[in-house]
Amino acid sequence: MEILKKIYSLYSTRGHKCDGCNLGEDCYSDGYRCIRSGLFFHKECATSNQDVCNAYHPQHMLKIKVVSNFEDVHGECKICRGKLPKMYYYCSICDFAIDLICARKEVVKNIDFPNTHKHRLSLVPKMIMFSCHICQLVDDRFPYACDICGLNFHKDCAESTPELSYSCHPKHPLKRLTRVPSYTNGKCCLCKSKLHILFYHCSICNFSVDVECAKNPPPLTLDHPKAHEHQLTLLPQRIFVLMLVEWIMIQILIYVFSAISWSIGVV
Ligand SMILES: [Zn+2]
Ligand SMILES: [Zn+2]
Ligand SMILES: [Zn+2]
Ligand SMILES: [Zn+2]
Ligand SMILES: [Zn+2]
Ligand SMILES: [Zn+2]
Ligand SMILES: [Zn+2]
């Protein structure tokens, strides 16, 4: 908070999107706004610890860095590769940066029983080149390695299964894919994020989900017509009834008001 206060003139308020973590498009939360720049910081982000230990960079402490409104932020979060916001954690010795969201996530250091390999895998906390044993793609950071076989894996690849039966797409089992087919739009059908190295796909329906959505199926809504058959018939009825009730209420109000104004007019 002290470092943030040195750069920004903050007052306590509520706001939408946070310039500390780049999140919060659709909900209001407590935080601080800068009088001069108008930037907003969640309370949780503004009061982040000054320094943290992170399992992806265990050799040095990472210190919080706050960038002023006039400076551009360069570089990416080394964990999620996202654009860095105005606040992040940084090691100046190694030029290593991670955003506040990734700093808060619990890091899986060991995968004891991976679905795709018979030995335990351990996180290699280094930015090194490796080729993933499952998807065959070459990557440049943080593999999970088997010390016995000398093989490397992406975390998602190590934990994946060749097929997945998925509650949001019960018609067909989804297949694990590591290359996006050209006939798809390359996006997760549920959360619309770009599909990365590994995802699950139904070629009959051209339905794809990323690993996040595969692990945590989102609540079903009308946006996902391919997700479920029953939801589609239920929701519109409920909305329709609500709209009908609303319309009747408005008609009653109009009638009451016109009756009142008419009687006033008569008096
Ligand atoms: Zn935030
Ligand atoms: Zn990140
Ligand atoms: Zn370092
Ligand atoms: Zn992989
Ligand atoms: Zn092994
Ligand atoms: Zn998704
Ligand atoms: Zn299908």
What can you see in these coordinates?
With 267 residues, this protein is of the alpha+beta class. The protein has 3 domains: 103 residues, no CATH class; 50 residues, 2-Layer Sandwich (Wheat Germ Agglutinin (Isolectin 2), domain 1), CATH 3.30.60; 53 residues, no CATH class. Strand 2 and strand 3 form a beta hairpin. Helix content is 24%, strand content 25%. A 4-stranded antiparallel β-sheet has the order 4-5-6-7. A 4-stranded antiparallel β-sheet has the order 8-9-12-13. The protein is flat, with a radius of gyration of 26 Å. The longest helix has 38 residues. One zinc ion binds next to loops. This is BnaCnng36890D protein. It comes from Brassica napus (Rape). One of its GO terms (molecular function) is metal ion binding. Keywords: Membrane, Metal-binding, Repeat, Transmembrane, Transmembrane helix, Zinc.
Low-confidence runs of at least 5 consecutive residues: 229-239
Question: What is the straight-line distance between the termini?
Answer: 66 Å
User: What is the strand arrangement across the widest sheet?
Assistant: 4-5-6-7
Shape: flat
Bound molecules: zinc ion
Q: Mean of the pLDDT scores?
A: 89
Overall tally of structural domains: 3
Organism: Brassica napus (Rape)
Protein name: BnaCnng36890D protein
GO molecular function, one term: metal ion binding
InterPro entries: C1-like_sf, DC1, PKC_DAG/PE, Vacuole_Formation_Reg
Annotation keywords:
alpha+beta; Wheat Germ Agglutinin (Isolectin 2), domain 1; 3 domains; four-stranded antiparallel beta sheet; 6 helices; 17 strands; 24% helix; flat; binds zinc ion
